Amino acid sequence: MANAPIRRALILDVDDAFSGDLAEVLTDANYEVFRARDRATAQRILTEKKVLALLLGMSPSREDSLEDLRWVKLHFPCVEVVVFNNRDHFRAAFDTMNLGAFDFLVKSANMLEFIPVIDKALDKSTENFRSKLSSACAPRLTAPATEMVGSSAAIQNVQARISKIAPSDAPVMISGETGVGKELAARMIHRLSRRSSGPFVPINCGAIPESLLENELFGHAKGAFTDSGQVKLGLLEEADGGTLFLDEVSELTPALQAKLLRVLEAGTFRRLGDNKERHIDVRFIAAGNRDLKEEMNSKRMRADFYYRLAVLLIDIPPLRKRREDIPLLVEHFFTLHLSAHKVSGKKISTSAMRMLMEYDWPGNVRETRNVVERLAILADDKIITPADIINIVDLSYGMDLPTSSPEPPTRTSPGDRPAENSIPPR
Asked: Taking the complete model, does pTM exceed 0.70, yes or no?
């Protein structure tokens, strides 16, 4: 066994005694074992460590465990799941197998008998990624960490809606405040769609002068303008066979909205200065941080254009309404920035994390990323405290900052430490 390739497994179970014993047995069998007690930690490990076998212990609340299984099969569809229960229960076994579990086992002291089943589950998962299913596996495996980090019910609902919407070619309207991740959601839809091998072309309609925006979108024919000595392809043609993402769509003029409506309805357009009508195959995704229905009611957005774009709707909630996602986002960005700037050994104290959770984050996820990057680079000590936050990033707006000395980092004994959660970013 010593020369066999290392295999990876994740144990997701609140039963620390069982998961600890099983981890020891699998480690002796040349497995690299990770442990988690909650879905957020499991999400991070499945994504970062590329674990392909999940060992799920059923909790006393059977529905919670079934929901964990549904979540894994939704976001990591090619990962095989072996379910462990404290007793042989026909209904529980039937439900888990019906939801896509690889096998259902009863917890026992003789854990060596589990290894052949876990081996088979891992082999099956590996084959999933190597076979015709690989294109369906890879995008969802990377999506939760690289695009939309979070374990809240709100963000899980958004991810589930994205997965449901992606296979369609219908236009999508994404709403949400600045910085919540609207473009990231659009990229997820594209990557999970049949158009994933085609181009994803984003354009910020509010960042390009009105006089140039039409030319950027539609392109122009040779000789259309003075000194236009050659054909210019617009973004519509660049997106042919893929997805065009119109960010800040409410900034489009009514005249330009009318021209894009023609493209949406007929799939045809004309370059500026050209009489030839051209056909394209493009999926439209639009986004805005204003109330787009209010824009329509105020006549700043054409009603026919709005309704043609808003066939499928996604609303991404602001970070202050899903505060349970803040620690996961902070840890995620902290790990990324420590690696990017070649910094090691730093950790965020409990009191500092508490302060970050109390902040309202008006800039949402984008602001979180920027703040965490500053902390990763500029904090002098290995343990980041509230004092570092006060000195390095000004989060004082709308907050009651502590005036006393920051508390020292809490030391925990090995028995109190949740598996994986307390390991510092590497």
From this structure: no
